[in-house]
């Protein structure tokens, strides 16, 4: 019997949850030396679709996705951007938390057009994986933006 993920609505393959797929993809990434920018998109999309960000974290995630995808950053630019932009908003100056607290109001349910299950099923090698993750990030970002209208 196939089950559906309660958070992102993905149809789950047998004996898997989005969390186990996420863990497997992290191993795949390190085994295949996947660039950090792709890893970043993967983790961000996973967190967005599983309601793991606070409201402030979600705004941050959206702007990070936007910058990463729009400017077609090189790996150096990506890391530099994370260091500078990430830093100004972390530790000392950041007063909010990334992760959603258990008593935070629930986020609206979204019928995500693409999920981590799609990514894992369609990526057979490193090159395809990078493509799939970028497409996933594009679609997630579009849906995030349309939520605010
Ligand atoms: Zn899920």
Model description:
The structure is a single chain. 58% of the residues lie in helices and 3% in strands. The protein is mainly α and 149 residues long. Helix 2 (36-49) packs across helix 6 (126-147) and helix 5 runs antiparallel to helix 6 (126-147). It is globular, with a radius of gyration of 15 Å. The protein binds zinc ion.
Q: Which stretches are low in confidence, meaning pLDDT under 50 for 5 or more residues running? A: none
Element-by-element helix/strand order: EEHHHHHH
Radius of gyration: 15 Å
Based on Cα principal axes, name the global outline.
globular
Q: Provide mean pLDDT, rounded.
A: 90
> What distance lies between the first and last C-alpha atoms, to the nearest angstrom?
37 Å
Main beta sheet: 2 strands, antiparallel
Kindly name the structural category. Answer: mainly alpha
Fraction of residues in helix: 55-70%
Which helices and strands appear, and what pairs or packs with what?
Layout: E1 3-4, E2 11-12, H1 18-31, H2 36-49, H3 55-70, H4 75-88, H5 116-122, H6 126-147
Antiparallel strand pairs: 1-2
The structure holds zinc ion (ZN).
Outline:
By secondary structure, the protein is mostly helical. Helices cover 58% and strands 3% of the residues.
């Amino acid at each position: 019997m196939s089950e559906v993920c309660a958070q992102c609505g993905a149809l789950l393959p047998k004996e898997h949850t989005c969390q186990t797929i996420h863990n497997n993809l992290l191993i795949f990434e390190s085994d295949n030396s996947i660039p950090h920018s792709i890893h970043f998109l993967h983790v961000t999309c996973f967190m967005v679709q599983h309601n793991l960000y606070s409201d402030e974290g979600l705004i941050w995630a959206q702007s990070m996705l936007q910058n990463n995808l729009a400017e077609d950053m090189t790996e150096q630019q990506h890391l530099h951007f994370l260091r500078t932009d990430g830093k100004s908003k972390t530790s000392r100056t950041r007063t909010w938390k990334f992760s959603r607290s258990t008593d935070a109001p629930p986020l609206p349910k979204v019928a995500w057009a693409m999920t981590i299950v799609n990514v894992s099923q369609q990526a057979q090698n490193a090159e395809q994986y990078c493509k799939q993750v970028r497409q996933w990030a594009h679609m997630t970002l579009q849906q995030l933006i349309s939520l605010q209208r």
